[in-house]
Amino acid sequence: MDIDEVIKNRRSIRKYKDKPLTKEQIIDILDAGNRAPSAKNRVQWRFHVFQGEAKARLVQTCRETIEKLPKIPLMASTHNSYNIMDKAPVVILVLQTCEWGGIGPEIQSVSAAIQNMLLKAHSMGLGTVWINDVLFVEQAILQLLKIKVEESEMRSNLVEFGEKTGMQVGYSSPLIAAIALGYPDEQPEREPRFTIEEVTKWYE
Ligand SMILES: Cc1cc2nc3c(=O)[nH]c(=O)nc-3n(C[C@H](O)[C@H](O)[C@H](O)COP(=O)(O)O)c2cc1C
Description:
By secondary structure, this protein is α+β, with helices and mostly antiparallel strands. The protein has helices at 3-9, 23-34, 52-68, 78-87, 104-123, 138-145, 153-165, 196-199; strands spanning 45-50, 90-96, 127-131, 175-182.
């Protein structure tokens, strides 16, 4: 498929056929993610692929945990997102290494990897949706994955630099997003977009 066609026709897919993917298909998609550009070429993404019973346990963890949390309006979509993960044959959790503490560059690298995977999947006739709603239950997911965040020397250096310069040194969880993946069972319309004029300023 031509790159323009892939970019223009990709849509978030939230309904999937009950048809499994082969391991080769999943690896092709991970490979596309792994070819993304990354800050200092340090490939800050990590992929955790869930299918079958492991995916069911992941979704159950999300559902049970969200029930126990205080509700805020942004959470309204979580049930829907967890249902999508439940029905999709594959869910890929995408994490960042956090060697710099999860500041901007790492998230940018990982986002590039995610977009590569969404485009690759579409080019293979598969559907995806990028799911942020897992972040509300990140602690429970990190426990499930047995991941602990360690303070790194690079992050300590950055914090020190931030204190001296007033630069805001951010911190983010290792968990960035989930990708639901499968054969599409819907053909959504294009979501509205701002025009180029609305999102661009030109400097000459
Ligand atoms: C960072 C990010 C987080 C998102 N999180 C969710 C989510 O949690 N649940 C969901 O159903 N869709 C989620 N989406 C999908 C967006 O709703 C979707 O991309 C947007 O509505 C545009 O539609 P399109 O992808 O079909 O062009 C997310 C997309 C991005 C880029």
